[in-house]
Task: structure prediction
Amino acid sequence: MAVSEALRFVNEGNTLLMSTPLAEHFDAANADNPLTDRCWLRRTRWLIGCLLLFRLVYAAYVPLDLVPDEAYYWDWSRQLDWGYYSKPPMVAWLIGLSTSILGSTAFAVRLPAVLLGTLGLFWMYLLAARLYGRQAGFWAALLTAATPGNAALALLMTIDAPFLFCWCGALYCFWRFLEGGRSGLLWLAAATLVSGLGLLSKQTMIAFLPLALIFLGVSPADRGRLRTPGGWIWIAASLLFLTPVLLWNMQHDWITAQHTSGHFSGAAVGIVKRLSRFGEFLAGQFGGGTPVTMALYAAVLVLTARGFRHIDRRARYLFCFSGLPMAGVLGLAVVQRVQPNWPAGFVPAGLVLVCGWALGHIAGIRPLKAGTLGLRRAVVVGAACVLVTYLLPFGFGLQGSRIDPAARLRGWYQLGQTVDAAWRELPQTHGAFLVATTGRAAASELAFYLPAQPRVFVWNATGQVLSQYDVWGGPQGMSGAAGLIVTAAGDRPPAALAAAFEAIEPSGEVNVPIGNGRSHQYQLWRGIGFVSWPSSP
Result:
């Protein structure tokens, strides 16, 4: 079933890539050598088509368990809504669409990430080709594909897959709108659509709007747009997409805003700790983008910043969406911990800038001496890193070790199969449900990997909302039902939770090894005769 669906989707993807409307935008541009232009477009189509086929087969056949975030978002998709505790709803909507067609399997959960992460490379081609020619477009798509970050984000179904697809689409569509002409209104509508959908994918998309205004302010040729309604209509129409999310938050005490603001507040730490965190952030950037590619990226941003007064509007456009926000993130990383994926949206424009620099299209800054050789070296090193990324889940003796990047993908299926024995022993007279006291990670993984995929609840004794499970609350209308309680190994159920049942009895221990002495360890308890869900302290 999985391979047939994979082949069907790759055929549809290749049909999209080989269609002519996308290519028609370039017929009037870069026409000095149309045969060469067609060659670069054909290479890009083959690159993306073959990569899509490989990633679909990999997702269908390589037995990688869902990471806790993926399982968590899948559980969201079972209760579709206009908003959720920590994120906008797009990730749940996409998973819900995919699983409604293909069933609740790991392949179905990850399919949107594979499609968006791979087909999004075509946005890179379109943008670079429009700015610097189709050769630059090919290199931009290839350079992006040859990064472990793209490989991971095009496999794991998190909020970054739809967000990056929309961000790159907005970069291209907004530039087409700025070009003007008879199709200006069409590109204004397209830019509004992709930026609006991006706002429904991840909060970071909001940064696109002020960055666009900054570019209009620093580009003499585009400054007049600030006095015309087009750009302001785009901003207002994009923000309208957030209306249902805002209404949902109004009904839930603005919980998403509270959670997001928590990312920018933390306990004060010393200078040594700050430097350590900053080093971790840099290591994450160079690891996700490969050392050679990110060295080129950093070099072109520094050179562009130094020569900003002399570069043309194309380079200024790309810098405003890459170097400028990346400088802000670097400053933030000095102050607090910054996750490696936070600046992911600021990398695509910078990679297009790298390609334009390497091919000698950016006047005003020193050209890259290595030229296309520098791009080739970056792609070769990147391809090797991507190959390692795809091979690491197979272990090679690293399973469960501190340097095992796939540790979070291991053992969850076996955990579900092991816990299923205790689940099947629960009396079903009044129904049954599962309660986890260990947080959302185990709760969401058990919800997905127990064969029955039951409704799972989370007991939270902190008095604070920590996940979507707290927003949903406890079981209702299940008086007399049986419950399977999951605690950390060696722990007993909290007294308030135990009092919610007529009786509590142990139901065994679970120990699922994942390698190198690490394992998933839990204690199981059987609750008989559910009374009512207690109030959290």
Remarks:
- The longest helix spans residues 34-61.
- The beta strands are 432-436, 456-458, 482-488, 501-515, 518-530.
- The CA atoms of residues 438 and 487 lie 6 Å apart.
